[in-house]
C-alpha cells in the first residue's frame, strides 16, 4: 500500500526526512519506555510454519528513505498526462520487497511539473510512504504519518473509528443477549454469499497484470446531502456508488451482470492500540448488482452496513478475522489460491482534518494507492479512486470511464425530486375554512372539527361502513351493573375538567353539524347518558347463540357493522353483555361479561382511546406507562442548523418512499364472491411477546416493522394458496403516534403509506426493506411532516373529501399497532381478564397486546375460517423470522 503526499516545493531534503523518521518514529517510546513502533526495524522470519518479527541487525535508514532516481524504476515522462498514475502503479507493482528487510520505505521524487499538480503554486515534489499491509491498517497508517509530522495529538480528530464495541461499557443482560444472537445476524448476511460469484470473468484478454487506476473528486457537501436525504452512513453511499458504477461499466461492455456480488468492506475497531497492528472489523456482504433502482440498492446496502456497525457484530467480526491466523502459513496460502477474495474491495480512509506542514513545507494533496487485483473505491478527502488489473481495466481511460459512471450514480442519488405543492389552492381553502370557522363561532356558537379529525369524517358517518372502532373488556363476573358504569362515566369523563376549569372531553356530549361544507361540534341539548350506556339486549342486535364457537366474533362484527350511528347524537356508546359462558372466555374463572366501548374514529385515535379508558378506570396516572408514543419530533428541542436542514430535506425523503405507490394497485381483486353483503370476518392469534422481542433483537428492527412483515408475508401465502396473482408491491397504511399528545379527544397521529415487496420470497429481505421504510417514517423530521400532510386534507370542504374517497380508495392493507395497559385493570372490584380491539375496516389490520387480529369483508375472507388460515400463515412467517 502507499500514501503519496504532494509538497508545494520543488524538492524535499532527504536528510531532513531521515532525521524526522529517526526522531519521531524509530526512537519513539511509549509510556513504559518501550519502542512504540519496533516493527519498522524488523523483517519477517518463518519458523515451524508461522511468522515472527525478526529485528534487522544492520538496519540502515538510508536504505528506506530514498530518492526516486535510486529505485531503478523508469524515469517519468512528464509529457504524458498519465505520468503520475504510472508512478503509482510502478511503485506498487514493479518494486518488490527485499527479504530480511523491513517492509516499508519512503520514496522522494523532486521537480514534478506544476501541470501535474493543480493545487500547487509551482513545481512540486512527491513524498511516497510505501508499506506492506502486514505492518498496519489504514488507521495505523495515518497514526504513523501524524507522528512523523508532529501532529500525534491531532490523531483523535483526524481518523477516529466510528464503530463501537458492546464490550466498551458495563455488561448488562440485554448486552449478553445481543452477544448471543450476533453470530446469527452475521450468518444471515453471509449466507447469500454462497450464490455470489467469487470472481468477475475477465473483460479484456491480457496476462501481463498492469495496474491501471483513476481518481475522481466528490465534493463532501454532495456526499453529506445524500447522507441526510436518505438517512444512511457514508460507507453505504460509497458502496452504492461504486457498485452502481461497476454495473454500468459491465453493461457497456456487454458483460453478464451477476444478481449479487460480494464486497469486502473493512471497518475500524474502536480503541485502536498505539502500535502497528491491523485492528479492523467489517466483513464481506452481497450487493444487489441487478437492482436497477439505485435508491433500493442504497437501502439494501445500508442494511448490511448497519449490521456490520452493530455493537455486538464489530468485535465478533474482528475475532473471526483473527481466526485464520491460527493456521500455519502454507494452509493460509493454499486457501488463498483455492478461494479468491471477493471481486470488490472498499477502503474508506479519511485524512487529517487540518492542513499538514512538513517543517515549513505545505502538503497540498494526499493520494492513497493499493496493489489490489480488483475494482476498489477508496476515499480520502472526498476523493474516490479505483484500480484494477488490465484484464478488467484495459487502460487508464477505462478507469476514468468507470469513475464517470460512479459520478453519474452519485448524481442520481443526490438529485432532488421536485415536489410541486399547489400552494395557492391550499391557501385559498385555508382562508375559506378559517372564514367558515369564524362564521360558525359567531353565528352558531359552535367549534369547528379539527383538521385531522375532519379527514376521518370524510364518509357517510351514519352508514354501515362508517369508520367505527371498539375496545372490548372481558370481566370476570357474570354481569356488570349498568348504574355503576354510568356513575363512573359521569364522574370520570363527562364532568372531568382540565386545569383551566373547562370540560376535558366536551365532544362526548356533542354531535356533528355541517355548516357551509365544514363540520362543527354541536352540543346535544337533551343529552341522556342512559342512551349511551346500554345493555346488549336493548341494541336490537341478534341475541348470541352460545352453541356457536364463533359467537364472540359475530358479536364483534355486529357491533361494528349493524349498529349505525344516530344523527344529532354523540358518536360513542358503551354496550354491556352479561352471562357470557366460560367456554368462550378461557381466561375467566367463571361465566363473564363484556364491556364494549364503541366510538367513531372522528372522536379520537388509539392513544386517546386508552387515555379515556384509563381515566374511566381511575388509572389516569398510568397512561404514560401504558401507551407512550415512541416517536420523536424534530421540534421537541432547540432548533439548530442541522435540524433546519433535516426539516428542508424531509419532503424529499417522504416522496422517495411514497412515489413507488404510483405503481401499486389501489385494491386487491376480490377472491371470493361476496354477493355485496359485506359481512365482516375476523380472527385473532396470540404471539408471545418474547418471540417478537427475540426477532427484534436478532434483526435489529422495530416492532412495527416486524408486524408489517408478518402480516404482509401471511397475505402473500394466503393469496398464493388461493391462486391469486401477486402484485409486485402493495401499499400499506401504517399510522404511528405523534409525541406530546394533547389531553383531549383528537386524532394526533403521524405515519403514512408505503409499499411492501409482496413478491419477495426471502422473509429476511422483506423485513429489512420494510424496516428501512419504517425507520424513515420514525425520523424526527418526518414524524411532524406526516402529521402536517394528514391535516392538509382537512382544509377542504366535506364534498371534496367525499369525492376523493370515492375516486381513490385507501390502501389495501392497514396496520394499527396498539399496546394496552402495563398492569391488570379493575372496574371497582371486578377484574378485567382480557382486552380485544375491533375496527370496521374492510382490509387486513394487525393490532396489539401481543395479539395479531385480522378483519376483512367476505369478498376477501369468505368466512372466519379463512381469517384463521390467514393468521396461521402469519404465525408461520413469524416462526421463520425467529428461527
TrEMBL record:
<protein>
    <recommendedName>
        <fullName>Diacylglycerol O-acyltransferase</fullName>
    </recommendedName>
</protein>
<dbReference type="InterPro" id="IPR045034">
    <property type="entry name" value="O-acyltransferase_WSD1-like"/>
</dbReference>
<dbReference type="GO" id="GO:0019432">
    <property type="term" value="P:triglyceride biosynthetic process"/>
</dbReference>
<dbReference type="GO" id="GO:0005886">
    <property type="term" value="C:plasma membrane"/>
</dbReference>
<dbReference type="GO" id="GO:0008374">
    <property type="term" value="F:O-acyltransferase activity"/>
</dbReference>
Amino acid at each position: 500500500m502507499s500514501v503519496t503526499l504532494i509538497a508545494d516545493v520543488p524538492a524535499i531534503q532527504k536528510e531532513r526526512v531521515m532525521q524526522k523518521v529517526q526522531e519521531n518514529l524509530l526512537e519513539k517510546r511509549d509510556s513504559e519506555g518501550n519502542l512504540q513502533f519496533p516493527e519498522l526495524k524488523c523483517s519477517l522470519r518463518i519458523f515451524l510454519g508461522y511468522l515472527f518479527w525478526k529485528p534487522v541487525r544492520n538496519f540502515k535508514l538510508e536504505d528506506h528513505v530514498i530518492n526516486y532516481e535510486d529505485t531503478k524504476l523508469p524515469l517519468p515522462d512528464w509529457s504524458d498526462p498519465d505520468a503520475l498514475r504510472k508512478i503509482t502503479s510502478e511503485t506498487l507493482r514493479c518494486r518488490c520487497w527485499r527479504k530480511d528487510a523491513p517492509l516499508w520505505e519512503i520514496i522522494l521524487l523532486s521537480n514534478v511539473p506544476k501541470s501535474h499538480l493543480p493545487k500547487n503554486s509551482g513545481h512540486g515534489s512527491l513524498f511516497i510512504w510505501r508499506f506492506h499491509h502486514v505492518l498496519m491498517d489504514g488507521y495505523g497508517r495515518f497514526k504513523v504519518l501524524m507522528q512523523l509530522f508532529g501532529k500525534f495529538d491531532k490523531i483523535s480528530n483526524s481518523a477516529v473509528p466510528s464503530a463501537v464495541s458492546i464490550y466498551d461499557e458495563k455488561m448488562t443482560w440485554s448486552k449478553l443477549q445481543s452477544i448471543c444472537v450476533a453470530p446469527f445476524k452475521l450468518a444471515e448476511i453471509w449466507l447469500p454469499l454462497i450464490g455470489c460469484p467469487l470472481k468477475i470473468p475477465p473483460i479484456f484478454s491480457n496476462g501481463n497484470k498492469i495496474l491501471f487506476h483513476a481518481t475522481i473528486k466528490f465534493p463532501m457537501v454532495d456526499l453529506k446531502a445524500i447522507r441526510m436525504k436518505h438517512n444512511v452512513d457514508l460507507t453505504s453511499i460509497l458502496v452504492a456508488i461504486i457498485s452502481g458504477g461497476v454495473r454500468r461499466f459491465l453493461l457497456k461492455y456487454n458483460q453478464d451482470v451477476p444478481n449479487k456480488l460480494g464486497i469486502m468492506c473493512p471497518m475500524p475497531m474502536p480503541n485502536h492500540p498505539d502500535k502497528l497492528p491491523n485492528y479492523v472489523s467489517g466483513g464481506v456482504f452481497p450487493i444487489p448488482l441487478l437492482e436497477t433502482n439505485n435508491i433500493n440498492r442504497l437501502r439494501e446496502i445500508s442494511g448490511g452496513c448497519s449490521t456490520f456497525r452493530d455493537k455486538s457484530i464489530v468485535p465478533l467480526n474482528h475475532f473471526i478475522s483473527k481466526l485464520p491466523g491460527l493456521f500455519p502459513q502454507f494452509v493460509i496460502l493454499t486457501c488463498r489460491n483455492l478461494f479468491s477474495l471477493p471481486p470488490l474491495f472498499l477502503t474508506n480512509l479519511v485524512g487529517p482534518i487540518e492542513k499538514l506542514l512538513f517543517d515549513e513545507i505545505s502538503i497540498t494533496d494526499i493520494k492513497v494507492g493499493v496493489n489490489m487485483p480488483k475494482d476498489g473505491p477508496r476515499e480520502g478527502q472526498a476523493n474516490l479512486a479505483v484500480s484494477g488489473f488490465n484484464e478488467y481495466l484495459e487502460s487508464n481511460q477505462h478507469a476514468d470511464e468507470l469513475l464517470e459512471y460512479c459520478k453519474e450514480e452519485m448524481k442520481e442519488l443526490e438529485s432532488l425530486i421536485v415536489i410541486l405543492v399547489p400552494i395557492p389552492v391550499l391557501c385559498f381553502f385555508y382562508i375559506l375554512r378559517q372564514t367558515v370557522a369564524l362564521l360558525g363561532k359567531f353565528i352558531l356558537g359552535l367549534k369547528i372539527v379539527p383538521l385531522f379529525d375532519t379527514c376521518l369524517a370524510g364518509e357517510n358517518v351514519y352508514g354501515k361502513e362508517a369508520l367505527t372502532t371498539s375496545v372490548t373488556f372481558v370481566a370476570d363476573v357474570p354481569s356488570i351493573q349498568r348504574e355503576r358504569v354510568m356513575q363512573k362515566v359521569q364522574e370520570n369523563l363527562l364532568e372531568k375538567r382540565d386545569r383551566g376549569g373547562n370540560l376535558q372531553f366536551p365532544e362526548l356530549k356533542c354531535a356533528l353539524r355541517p355548516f357551509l361544507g365544514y363540520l362543527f361540534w354541536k352540543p346535544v341539548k337533551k343529552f341522556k347518558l342512559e342512551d349511551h350506556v346500554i345493555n346488549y339486549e336493548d341494541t336490537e342486535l341478534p341475541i348470541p347463540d352460545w352453541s356457536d364457537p364463533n359467537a364472540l366474533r359475530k358479536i364483534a362484527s355486529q357491533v361494528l357493522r349493524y349498529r349505525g350511528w344516530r344523527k344529532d347524537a354523540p358518536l360513542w356508546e358503551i354496550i354491556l353483555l352479561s352471562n357470557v359462558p366460560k367456554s368462550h372466555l378461557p381466561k375467566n374463572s367463571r361465566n363473564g361479561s363484556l364491556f364494549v366501548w364503541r366510538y367513531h374514529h372522528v372522536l379520537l385515535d388509539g392513544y386517546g382511546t386508552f387515555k379515556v379508558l384509563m381515566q374511566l378506570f381511575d388509572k389516569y396516572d398510568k397512561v404514560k406507562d401504558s401507551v407512550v408514543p415512541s416517536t420523536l419530533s424534530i421540534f421537541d428541542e432547540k432548533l439548530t442548523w442541522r435540524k433546519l436542514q433535516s426539516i428542508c430535506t424531509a419532503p424529499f425523503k417522504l416522496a422517495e418512499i411514497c412515489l413507488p405507490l404510483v405503481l401499486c394497485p389501489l385494491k386487491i381483486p376480490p377472491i371470493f364472491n361476496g354477493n355485496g353483503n359485506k359481512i365482516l370476518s375476523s380472527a385473532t392469534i396470540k404471539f408471545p411477546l418474547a418471540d417478537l422481542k427475540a426477532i427484534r433483537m436478532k434483526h435489529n428492527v422495530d416492532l412495527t416493522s416486524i408486524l408489517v412483515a408478518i402480516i404482509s408475508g401471511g397475505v402473500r401465502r394466503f393469496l398464493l394458496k388461493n391462486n391469486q396473482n401477486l402484485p409486485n408491491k402493495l401499499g400499506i397504511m401504517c399510522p404511528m403516534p405523534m409525541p406530546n399528545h394533547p389531553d383531549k379527544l383528537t386524532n394526533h397521529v403521524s405515519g403514512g403509506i408505503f409499499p411492501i415487496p409482496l413478491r419477495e420470497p426471502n422473509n429476511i429481505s422483506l423485513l429489512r426493506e420494510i424496516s428501512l421504510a419504517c425507520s424513515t417514517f420514525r425520523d424526527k423530521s418526518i414524524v411532524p411532516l406526516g402529521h402536517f400532510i394528514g391535516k392538509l386534507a382537512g382544509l377542504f370542504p366535506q364534498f371534496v373529501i367525499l369525492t376523493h374517497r370515492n375516486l381513490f380508495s385507501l390502501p389495501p392493507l392497514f396496520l394499527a399497532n396498539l399496546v394496552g395497559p402495563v398492569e391488570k385493570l379493575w372496574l371497582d372490584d371486578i377484574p378485567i381478564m382480557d382486552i380485544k380491539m375491533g375496527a370496521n375496516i374492510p382490509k387486513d389490520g394487525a393490532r396489539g397486546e401481543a395479539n395479531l387480529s385480522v378483519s376483512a369483508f367476505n369478498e376477501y375472507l369468505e368466512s372466519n375460517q379463512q381469517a384463521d388460515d390467514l393468521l396461521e400463515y402469519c404465525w408461520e412467517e413469524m416462526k421463520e423470522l425467529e428461527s
